[in-house]
Design the sequence.
C-alpha cells in the first residue's frame, strides 16, 4: 500500500497552521518531506499523524 502524500497547504489546513509553519517544520525535520523542487514538497500523511500525536493532538483522517 502506498503512503498518501500531502501538499504543504493540505498539511497547513489539517493542522490549522500557516504554510510558513509547515515549511519551518520541514526545515527543523519535525516532519518527513519529499522535495520535488525549490519549494515544492510532498509530505507522507503518516509523518503528519505522528508529529501531531507526539504533540498531544488527536489526528483524525477523513473517511473515504
Sequence:
Amino acid at each position: 500500500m502506498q503512503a498518501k502524500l500531502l501538499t504543504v497547504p493540505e498539511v497547513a489546513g489539517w493542522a490549522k497552521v500557516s504554510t510558513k509553519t509547515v515549511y519551518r517544520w520541514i526545515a527543523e525535520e519535525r516532519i518527513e518531506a519529499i522535495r520535488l523542487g525549490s519549494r515544492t514538497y510532498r509530505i507522507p500523511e503518516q509523518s503528519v499523524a505522528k508529529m501531531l500525536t507526539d504533540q498531544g493532538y488527536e489526528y483524525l483522517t477523513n473517511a473515504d
